[in-house]
Specification:
358 residues; mainly alpha; 2 domains; 3-stranded antiparallel sheet; two-stranded antiparallel ribbon; 6% strand; globular
Length: 358
Amino acid sequence: MGPRGAARRSEGEVISEQNDKLPLATASRWRELWRCRGTWAYVALLTAVSVVCAFLPLADHLGYELAEIVALCAGAFGAAPGVAAARTEIWRNRADAAPALGAAVLAGLTALTIPLGIILLNGLRRPVCDPLAGLVLYVALAVPSGALAAALGVACGFAAHRRAGWIVAAVFAATLFAALWPIARGPQIFAFHHLGGWFPGPIYDEAIRPTRALWIFRAGTILYAGACAGAALLAGPGLRRTAGLVALVACGAPAAWLSLHAERFHFRASAAGLAGHSRGQGHLRRTRRDLLLARGGGSEQARKESALGACRGLTLSLLSSVRMVRRVCKCRGSARVVSPTGVRRSWCRRRGRSSRRW
């Protein structure tokens, strides 16, 4: 049979391409993604962490601690669905990066509902104080980290599918080091990380609320996620490379601008900035956070004022503690002590005779 005869095919016969790609064109991308080991491993990790948090103090309810733990897990391992979606899409006959990107981000956000459901069910055992405030913190911390990690995983999977996991781990480690380095140098005591979330510092109020700096920083996280999505469209298969380039520039430029002006938006601090602020205002604000920030830098006068403010605050706290103890005890002819077993004993003298009441 000549070359012309070899090229002939009947009308009802299907012409298949002779390559190594898997015949996955008819299957659903969503089902394929949930069949991958990386996606199931990520879901299993979130489930295990949520169950452990249900029995830990401060993390057994919907609040900052749980949101930060889930954000760390999502930022470190949330790229697994993205890498799996990219690797699956590469082997398609008609590959397209946009559906794979959408499926990966949707899978990553869907997986974040598992810790939320487990903790809400744990509320039957441990009552929740303020679930709405905790839900706001969960949306502000965990959701942007999960979206960014999924988009980053898709971009790395299309760029280098064999080494995508190592690239994601290197990006997470490098950005985490850059976020924690100002704490090591001082005087900054808080940290903002696009993948890891937000650390407000060693001293904070019991009820943590999202600040303006956090919302601005999380807007930058969403912009970085959009830039990673543009990079995925640019590096992946399909005819959407122009849209990917536009998304990369349109989202990456504002995100980089926010990162360069971090001190202006108060998610980064330096000694020079604090010294300039103290000279411009003429005084330091008497708050615990500003006193700690001024500990490592600023002028000599600023440090003296911060020390005086700390002493004044300590004195006021001691006086308030003494007043509270006096109100509780009500030492008017009676004294109350607490036994080692936790039972309160009260002795009072009535008509020259001592009596014990339990």
